[in-house]
Amino acid sequence: MNEFQFIHSIKQNTYKQQSLLKGIGDDAAVFRSLDKDIVTAVDTFVENIHFNEKTMEAYDIGYKALAANISDVAAMGAQPKFYLVSIVVPDDASSQLLSGLYRGMDDIASKYRMDLIGGDTVTGKQLVLSVTIIGTVSRGKARYRNDARDKDIIFVTGTLGDSQAGLFLLMNDRVTNDKMNFIQRHRMPSPRVKFATSLQPLKRVALNDISDGIANELKEIAEASNVTIILEDDKIPTSSNFNEFSYSQQYEWKYFGGEDFELVGTASEKDWNFIKESADKIGLGITKIGNVTYDQNKNGNVYLKKEDQLVLLEKMGYIHKVGE
Fold first, then answer.
1. Contact 145/208 with Cβ under 8 angstroms?
2. CA within 13 Å, CB half, 84
3. N or C: which end of the chain has fewer CB within 10 A?
4. Burial class (CB in 10 A: 0-12, 13-18, 19+), 233
5. DSSP structure class, residue 41
6. Farthest CA pair distance, the chain
7. In this predicted model, what pLDDT tens digit does every residue of 248-268 receive, in sequence order?
8. Residue 244 and residue 168 in one domain
9. Per residue in 106-130, is it b (16+ CB within 10 Å) or e — as a string?
């Protein structure tokens, strides 16, 4: 099918969001928001950097590309509403590739009642998928990295290192327990929107989504807030079969592994019970993993406390190179 036929095939007949006045069909989309702050983000997935034929089907690529954007919005405490998609398609790509990409995006978009409101499709040498997302949050309730304070606790949702374990299993012929769960965590992550928005009653929370490893994400919070962050190694949550991998793999994937898309945050100690209860209500695991301090000589850094020793965690987050 040609470009116009394809656009017609993905055009929605009805809108999920009442604020959307005009979606696909004109030169631009129109939506109206009177009582919300607008949050927007963009992510780009490139063939042989973020994925390849061995690690993902077309459906998975579409699903994960939008999931990554949804996770960014969740880290701001916002609810995703709309998305736009620009795709560079190889000349020899099949119509099944495009339909698979959009089917993956549509499936996760439906879970969050999101509307596709535009985009573009062009031909090129390799597959590139760029997604722009738009979300909303109550006025003054967006969450920022510079809101960590001395004596805050640090918490994280879910388990860490699973996505990189899944990627390793996809790239290597290795038998392990719970193999499909690790692979699923790599291909189809679960953005923590419901949890993030449940924290809206709290006056102050600093959040980051774990796209480049928890050490890197907390380094960004430490620098933005001018504080020192201390993690406790024995409290970092991992899956039950994670110990089947080598010690060095576990260490690297826990702290520097990418694309878990969990949320890490800091908040006042007095708010921990509310945070824990919010996670429990939706069946989401959450763990207190450290604390924030103020030390002029160490501010802006993240340290790992292990056997009563403090080790500096350098900023060396995950680098996407699945093609190697």
1. yes
2. 17
3. C
4. middle
5. E
6. 64
7. 999 999 999 989 999 999 999
8. yes
9. bebbeebebbbbbbeeeeeeebbbb
What is the DSSP secondary structure assignment for residue 188, as one 8-state letter?
A: S
**Amino acid 91: pLDDT:** 87
Residues 203 and 77 in one domain: no
Residue 109's domain spans which residues? 3-138
Number of domains in the chain: 2
Determine contact, residues 302/291, Cβ cutoff 8 Å: no
Domain identity same for 121 and 224: no
CA torsion through residues 43, 46, 52, 57, sign? positive
pLDDT attached to residue 92 = 87
Q: Which residues of the chain have pLDDT under 70?
A: 1-13, 24-29, 317-324
Write the CATH number for 78.
3.30.1330.10
Cβ distance 219 to 124 under 8 Å? no
**Which domain CATH number covers 149?**
3.90.650.10
* Final residue before a domain boundary, out of 86, 117, 138: 138
Render pLDDT for 187-201 as a digit per residue (tens, 0 to 9). Answer: 999 999 999 999 999
CA angle 112, 195, 147 (to 5 degrees): 120
pLDDT at 322: 47
Angle (CA) 32 36 40, round 5°: 80
Whether 163 and 301 map to the same domain: the answer is: yes
Measured CA to CA, the distance from residue 109 to residue 111 in angstroms comes to: 5
Alpha-carbon gap, residue 147 to 283, rounded angstroms? 27
Q: Which two tokens stand for residue 167?
A: 């990627």
Tokens describing residue 173: 């012929």
d(CA 75, CA 144): 8
Q: Is residue 262 part of a domain?
A: yes
